[in-house]
UniProtKB/TrEMBL annotation:
Coiled coil: none annotated. InterPro entries: AB_hydrolase_fold (IPR029058), Pept_S33_TAP-like_C (IPR013595), Serine_prot/Carboxylest_S33 (IPR051601). GO terms for molecular function: hydrolase activity. This is Alpha/beta hydrolase. The keyword Hydrolase applies.
Length: 541
């Protein structure tokens, strides 16, 4: 599950149902956190036929050290910035080749935005930001958080720049279903109990995939993480920067690490917060994330049972007992969805309630909101609170309009990695393993990984390690109880990178920068402003 926007970069979301949101952001920070959290499973290697041996090195071998003449028009185009949105923000567009292997086959336009440096100190150039997803809008993240919420000393020295990746939001978005169709898709039972429900789930996944193929056939083959990283190198050149400086959260860490693997000598100061591990296959990613959400739920439960207003409470209740009560509530919703006060007549189903709980695991600041939502649903038969959390995760607004987050998320994930499962039967065989990892979330996360099974475009990436030999120090940030990007992923990525430096936050929530730890913020600010990475083994609370 990856990703939403928050004061720090956003999260990563689970494949089909567990995604980021932005409809009713309680705070900029929570939104950013959710933005980073989209259906998670991602990889980013071997685009356009390169990397056939599953390594970024193979893709690198296909890239000349100097810009090929066929790409020169893209690297020499002029950007025309114009005022847009809030005061101080500027927007532009740039062209990139649809297919880097065949530049003459056509262009696509990518949307850009920036907030110019505000201070009097020596300018440090541009700082690209990406909130994650995949599918999260970097421009929305810039306008709602990074451009106004990043530390003043960072905003004083850097132009904060965002590009919506190809296929996302303002950059020729992947299109699949309309709002009503998305409502129906998100309400499908994600934990089927019998053959009829399994057929309905498979049918929904097939319909979603077919719609994406129908409406975005040409684009679906060219939204890989490798291609998005190559787009960032074009932007770096157009901004006049010799090296790319970058802060990426959740899936944004994979995008940044992929850039470093492709262009190590053009890599400047990179912060990878809430790191993903590119060496894992899709099934392992889902399984690790399942365990991560169980860990986060235990932390929520331990906090909840101490409070008088905890709707899952009981005398001397344990986290396991809290989980049992929540599962019982979910089963009741499976049989009888409850009213949610929705203008479109939607009711709170088991699937929507599950996503509502998942959304609250990304940030401790939403735990109170979750307690209130559960109390209303369980004691007052009012599902409005949980439905609002679910809508935030899916980025659905009050008019029934969805951003293309879920559509872009699936398009990138399904191109970057082979599917986790080849059939519903394989999911059923894996259910015990997922249920062991998380009795609460395991079944839903296992079934949610079925979406890429029916994707109309074959995956071109494979699990791979990223070394980025020759790159400057790269800071990898891991949170010990991160639900969406488990801490061990940050450890793994920091060891893969030849210049990786792990910075640990001992705490809860998805991502760490800008989320209240003065220790984390100070370490990252020092690195961004002076190029000095954190000391080896540095840990913060």
């Amino acid at each position: 599950m990856d990703t939403r926007p928050s004061p720090s970069p956003p999260p990563a979301r689970p494949r089909r149902s567990l995604l980021p949101g932005a409809a009713s952001r309680a705070t900029a920070r929570t939104a950013a956190a959710l933005l980073a959290a989209s259906a998670l499973l991602v990889s980013g290697c071997g685009a356009n036929g390169t990397g056939s041996d599953g390594t970024v090195a193979a893709a690198l071998a296909a890239l000349p050290m100097s810009t090929p003449s066929a790409l020169s028009p893209y690297y020499t185009q002029k950007l025309s910035w114009r005022a847009c949105g809030a005061p101080g923000f500027e927007c532009a567009t740039m062209k990139v080749p649809l297919d880097y292997d065949k530049p003459a086959s056509g262009d696509i336009k990518l949307a850009l935005a920036r907030k110019k440096a505000t201070g009097k100190g020596k300018p440090l150039g541009s700082l690209l930001v990406n909130p994650g997803g995949p599918g999260g809008s970097a421009i929305t993240y810039l306008q709602q958080y990074a451009g106004i919420g990043y530390p003043a000393e960072v905003r004083a020295r850097y132009d904060i720049v965002a590009v919506d990746p190809r296929g996302v939001a303002r950059s020729e978005p992947v299109e699949c279903l309309n709002g009503r169709q998305m409502d129906a898709f998100t309400e499908v039972d994600m934990t089927p109990d019998d053959a009829k429900e399994t057929d309905a789930l498979v049918g929904a996944d097939r319909k979603f995939a077919e719609a994406c193929g129908q409406h975005s056939a040409k684009l679906l083959r060219h939204v890989s993480t490798v291609e998005a990283a190559r787009d960032m190198d074009v932007l770096r050149e157009l901004l006049g920067d010799k090296k790319l400086n970058y802060v990426g959260a959740s899936y944004g860490t994979l995008l940044g690490a992929t850039y470093a693997g492709l262009f190590p000598h053009r890599t400047g100061r990179l912060v990878l917060d809430g790191a993903m591990d590119p060496s894992l296959d899709a099934r392992q990613v889902n399984l690790d994330q399942t365990a991560g959400f169980e860990t986060a739920f235990h932390a929520f439960s331990a906090d909840c049972v101490k409070r008088a207003d905890c709707p899952l409470n009981g005398k001397d209740a344990t986290p396991a007992q809290v989980g049992d009560r929540l599962q019982k509530f979910f089963r009741a919703l499976d049989a009888h969805p409850i009213p949610a006060g929705d203008a479109d007549g939607r009711r709170l189903t088991e699937s929507l309630a599950t996503i509502g709980v998942v959304a609250a695991m990304y940030d401790q600041s939403t735990w109170e909101q979750l307690r209130e939502a559960l109390d209303s649903a369980m004691d007052e038969n009012d599902g409005a609170g949980l439905l609002a959390l679910s809508d935030t995760y899916y980025e659905r607004d009050s008019r029934g309009h969805y951003t293309n987050l879920m559509m872009a998320n699936a398009a990138v994930n399904c191109l970057d990695l082979p599917p986790a499962f080849e059939s519903p039967e394989q999911v059923e065989q894996a259910l015990p393993q997922f249920e062991k990892a998380s009795p609460v979330f395991g079944p839903g996360l296992a079934w949610s990984a079925l979406n890429c099974t029916y994707w109309p475009v074959r995956a071109i990436g494979e699990p791979h390690r990223i070394e980025a030999k020759g790159a400057a120090p790269i800071v990898v940030v891991g949170t010990t109880r991160d639900p969406a990007t488990p801490y061990r992923w940050a450890r793994s990525l920091s060891r893969q990178l030849s210049s990786g430096r792990l910075l640990t936050y001992e705490g809860d929530g998805h991502t760490a920068y800008g989320r209240g730890s003065a220790c984390i913020d100070s370490a990252i600010n020092t690195y961004l402003l002076h190029g000095t990475p954190p000391a080896p083994g540095k840990r913060c609370t």
